[in-house]
Every structure is written in C-alpha cells, then in structure tokens.
Amino acid sequence: MSGGPGGGKAPQTGGRQQRVILAPGVRPREVWAWAMFDFANSGYTTVVITAVFNAYFVAVVAGNQTWATFAWTAALAVSYAAIMVTGPALGAYADLHAAKKRLLLGTTIGCVVFTAALAFAGEDTLWLGVVLIILSNFFFGAGENLIAAFLPELARGRSLGKVSGWGWGLGYIGGLVSLGCSLAYVSFAQARGDPAVAFVPVTMLITAGLFALASLPTFLLLQERATPQTGIVPGHPWRESFSRLAQTVHHARRYRDLWRFLVCLVLYQAGVQTVIALAAVYAQQAMGFDTQQTLTLILVVNVTAAAGALGFGQVQDRIGHVPTIALTLAGWILVVILAWSSTGPAMFWAAANLAGLCLGSSQSAGRALVGYLSPAPRRAEFFGLWGLAVKLSSILGPITYGVVTWISGGDHRLAMLITSVYFVTGLAVLRAVDVRRGRRAAVTARTHGSR
Fold first, then answer.
1. Which pLDDT tens digit goes with each residue over 423-442?
2. CA distance 371 to 155
3. Could you tell me the residue range of the domain that residue 355 belongs to?
4. Domain tally for the chain?
5. Residue 110 needs a FRET pair 20 to 30 A away by CA distance; which of 82, 100, 132, 185 works?
C-alpha cells in the first residue's frame, strides 16, 4: 500500500523457500505482478480519499459549510453501498466464469477515467464532485475485491499473511510515489502563488495516470488459474451468481468463524476507514495544518504503513492471525487517544505514525485471514463478502464522524474520540474467532465440494 513485491523483501526465486511460500506452479514474477496492482491503486486512496481531494472537497467544493464533512462522508457512503450490493454477486460471477481478470480490467478503466474527471470539480460544482467521487470510488472498491481473490491462488495457506504483506507493503510504496509526485507539484504551484483550485485538479490527473501505468504488469503477467464452473444456466449468469450468494448465506453455520471475523472486520474497519477518509480533514480542521504540511505528514505515514504491512506479515505467520490483529487493534485505540489529546504537532505526528504501522498491519492481516478461512470453490465469492464487510464499515465509521461534527458544530476532536468505540467492540468480537476450527471447515468444503 525496495525491490520485489514486498517493497524491501522480495520472495526467493528458487529452492525450498519458494516452494514453501508460493502455490504450486506460481512464479515469483507473477506474485510481483499481483502486488503491483496494490502499488497502482494505492495512489487513489492516498491522494483522493486520504490526503488531497477529501480536504479540497470540504474546503472548496462544499465551501467549508457546517455540513461539508457530512457531505463528503455521505458521498463515500453511497459508493460503498453500491459496492456492497454488487460485490458478492460480482465475486460469484467471477468464480463461475473464471472472469476475475476481465472484470478487474473493466473496474480499473472505470476508476482511472473518473479519477481523471475529478479534475473538473471545483467551486460551485458540488453535485459534479459528489457524482464523480461516487463513481471513481465504486470502481476502485470493486477492483479491490477482485485483486484480493487472486491471493489464495498464489500463496500456500501458511504463507498468506506473508504474501498479503508483500502486496500491502508495495501498495504503500505506490501511495508514496503518487503522493510524492503530487506533493512536488503542489509545492511548485504554491511557490508561484497558485490557489488550490489550480493545483488540486492536476494531482487528480497525476494519480489517474500513475494508476493506469503501474497496473500494466498485472494484466500482462498475472494468470487466471480458475476454470469456468459447470451447471451454469445458459443466458442467466447473474441469476446463478445471486443463487450461489443465497446458498452461501444459507450455509453460514459451516463457516461460522469466517462470519464472526467478518462481523469483527466491520467493526474495527469502521475506525480504520474513518482515519483513511478523514485524516487530512482532521489535520487541517483540528490541528491547523496547511496542504503542504498535510501532504508531508501523509507521505511519512505511508512509509510507516509499508513497514507495518511487511513487518506484521512476517509476525502474523509466526504468532497467528488473531493475536496479530488483536495487537494492531490495541495500537489503534492508542492512536485515537493520542490524536484526541494532541495539542501540538509533536504528539499528533506520533499518533499519525503509529496509525501508519497499525494501518498496514490490520489491513494486511484481515485480508490474509479471510483467505485462510475461505473454501477454495468460493474464494472470489467470500472475498466479495470481505469487500462487503469493509464497505459497510466504510459507511458506518465516516458517517458517524460526519454526523458528530455536524451536530457538534464542527468538533472534530469529539468525533475522533467516538471512533475508538469501533476498535474496542471489534477487539471484543475477535475473541470469539477460532482460527483452527474455521480452517478445518474451509478445508472440508474444499475436499467434499462447496455444496
């Protein structure tokens, strides 16, 4: 979210190490190509959602009205709701027709086009900005689900955390590249006296261009290993997809630990997604940072996030999925307390960098655990459910923050403090997840079929 797909620790290219980590028939360059999509799409979340366009939307597009933060979170909520509705069925369709790569290409084109179109959003263009952020974020989220579904095909079960960490780590480096290019242009534009309405649109074009360029290795090298499944009703592929999704819900008892973790995921990701969507807004509104200071902060946080994804990917495979996630949730609770109590830049910088460590580790660990608990015949489908859970959290957390700031007359500190509730409740639910039992259920389903 430097060499190789780990941003510093590439997979070994031969011998026992490669055999232990990668699935049979998988070459290291293919894992790198898969991880490069994380590199490519992270510029969108970093520049558009986290660092630049969110604060620009609140201050310029929405005119810094009392409802501006709520308007931003509401636009994101609509896009996430659309992903929730379509994600599981899209994943089921991908499984049935071995279409993950084709669908990923379509979502990538959509996100690139609508991100570039954000360059047209400015003063007195509220509805244009809302529509474009909904569309760009929808295509981003749909593609995020699809690329994640390749993970269990590339890595062995005990190495899912490690390989997932490579992807997230390289992704944060991609975020650094996009943010660094944007920061360079912003610094240049501000030095010659340009206002935000002049330089922010250019950063949208930079982000879109880098996304398109960096995703090319994925489409050139990553293989679609799945084969179309039999029993599809001719002419009714989507009906069969929704039928499979209904069967998944019906058989939820078989995968109860996966479902418990998805509930946990909704809760703690509500807090994570709040930080992602509102980091720059909080920095500017509560801490008084300007655009250049905010970009510098987010740039440094991406370094710590990459370290968190890579480091905890190794830790997760050693100490276990649940202890790793529990450790990161404790860190998130501390982050919120530090940010809420910060009265100067020093403590806020400490909170932000701790958030970076927790961000990379919690996202990487969550994705790996879903893959570990998912039955092979329904991997893309269950990653669609993973995406559904993350998107639901992306509605709950930021909307809660937006409502609190609106009702409280702009009290961003109070909104940040309330965010800690999601991390605390997520930690409580995590205690009920039995990874060994959940893995047995997934392996049994793989051995005896998905029905």
1. 999 999 999 999 888 888 88
2. 10
3. 25-223+238-448
4. 1
5. 185
